[in-house]
């Protein structure tokens, strides 16, 4: 039996878990959602829902993980005695593997665009052009490169791989974001974007579509439901106060999303000021891939030489955000194979990464058919349903006394805490109802 890893420090765990939560969902998804859902009204509802819905589910994952100290299949099998828990665990592994299959492609694009800025800097125009044109060879090559970086980190294990790199990558991510924000705010047009981002139109706040989008964003940006947080929770020492750790992770995750919006929405209005089109035919701000791969590069082009450095910093930022999430996703199936099949970590990492990369290649070859389909299947349908199952396990199946004993290991006065007064009934009644409503609306 392989010895299980454990995070060596509190900050290591917080940065690794928030790194898992901070991904393209925050830096690409969040500003795009803000852009297409009425600006500040969306920001306001997202902030509320992140604490009202995402934090309680995050805590369910952390608690189940630390209590069982095992991979996602065994953990859910322990909590929900019988086959149902194990089945949900396998479903989580399948979902996270599919998410990583499309995530690897997008992570590869981010790397390609970062390399494009370097190629432009050295005057290699043909190379630069190839790096930003969507070809089969470029997509497969950079997806492979992205997966190799992920493999390199995960094969180091919990302390020497995940923790060591999270502690380096997360502060770098913050530094680049703050520098870019500072630069963008000196440009003409930035203040118009800031107003759109910070001044809510209160008539939009209770718009059902906006609420569903904000709820979905809160859920996905914390990478809930697929076992990544459960696995990280299983590597936490029993002496730690879990509700406090969970709050720190949530705050960092929300902070990065809000900072990303502060950077990207003003940048779009700077682009508008520089003559770049930022509104679609329907009068809405352009979002998602158009925003990242068309609007922002056009903006960087209008900045001259400085634009190349800004582009390099921006796509480096996107690559780091992708990587801190992909390492946690790969860890979910790896921990299962290492613990259940008694395979060495190195071997498990390579085998699983090869399988997921094959799925990525399959998606790249049938891009128009599969890419959008896999994203919708995993993030819109599978993730909320897995979140619902976690709430049912934590709220209805797992014995309350067992949960309390787990909390008391890190805080002997857990029984008197505000968390214990609210969380058990909240995760039992409120979260499942809200998730079911959101799921029904999304259909």
From TrEMBL:
Keywords: Membrane, Transmembrane, Transmembrane helix, Transport. Its main location: membrane. PROSITE patterns: NA_NEUROTRAN_SYMP_3. It is a multi-pass membrane protein. The keyword Kinase does not apply. The chain crosses the membrane at residues 12-31, 43-64, 91-115, 139-159, 171-190, 210-233, 245-271, 291-317, 349-375, 381-398, 418-440. The keyword Membrane applies. This is Sodium-dependent transporter. It comes from Rheinheimera baltica.
């Amino acid at each position: 039996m392989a010895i299980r890893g454990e995070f060596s420090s509190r900050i290591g765990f917080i940065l690794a878990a928030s790194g898992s939560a901070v991904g393209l969902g925050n830096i690409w998804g969040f500003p795009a959602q803000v852009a297409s859902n009425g600006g500040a009204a969306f920001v306001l509802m997202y902030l509320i829902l992140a604490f009202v819905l995402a934090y309680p589910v995050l805590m369910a994952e952390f608690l189940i993980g630390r209590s069982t100290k095992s991979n996602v299949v065994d953990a859910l099998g322990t909590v929900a005695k019988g086959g149902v828990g194990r089945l949900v665990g396998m479903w989580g592994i399948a979902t996270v593997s599919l998410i990583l299959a499309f995530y690897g492609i997008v992570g590869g694009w981010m790397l390609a665009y970062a390399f494009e800025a370097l190629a432009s800097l050295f005057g290699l125009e043909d190379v630069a052009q190839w790096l930003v044109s969507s070809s089969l060879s470029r997509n497969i090559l950079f997806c492979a490169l992205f997966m190799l970086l992920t493999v390199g980190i995960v094969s180091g294990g919990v302390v020497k791989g995940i923790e060591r790199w999270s502690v380096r990558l997360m502060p770098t991510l913050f530094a680049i974001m703050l520098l870019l924000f500072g630069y963008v705010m000196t440009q003409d047009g930035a203040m118009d974007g800031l107003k759109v981002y910070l001044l809510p139109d209160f008539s939009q706040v209770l718009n059902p579509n906006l609420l569903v989008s904000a709820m979905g964003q809160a859920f996905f940006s914390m990478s809930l439901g697929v076992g990544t947080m459960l696995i990280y929770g299983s590597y936490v020492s029993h002496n730690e106060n879990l509700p406090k750790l969970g709050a720190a992770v949530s705050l960092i995750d929300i902070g990065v999303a809000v900072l990303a919006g502060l950077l990207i929405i003003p940048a779009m209005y700077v682009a508008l000021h520089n003559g770049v089109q930022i509104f679609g035919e329907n009068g809405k701000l352009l979002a998602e891939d158009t925003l990242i791969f068309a609007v922002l590069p056009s903006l960087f082009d209008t900045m001259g030489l400085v634009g190349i450095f800004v582009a390099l910093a921006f796509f480096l930022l996107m690559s780091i955000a992708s990587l801190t999430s992909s390492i946690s996703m790969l860890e979910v199936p790896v921990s299962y194979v290492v613990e259940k099949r008694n395979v060495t970590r190195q071997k498990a990492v390579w085998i699983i990464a090869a399988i997921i990369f094959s799925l990525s290649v399959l998606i790249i070859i049938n891009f128009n058919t599969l890419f959008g389909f896999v994203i919708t299947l995993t993030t819109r349908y599978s993730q909320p349903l897995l979140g619902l199952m976690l709430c049912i396990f934590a709220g209805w199946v797992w014995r309350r006394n067992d949960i309390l004993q787990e909390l008391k290991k890190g805080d002997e006065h857990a029984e008197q805490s505000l968390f214990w007064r609210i969380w058990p009934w909240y995760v039992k009644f409120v979260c499942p109802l809200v998730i079911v409503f959101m799921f029904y609306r999304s259909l």
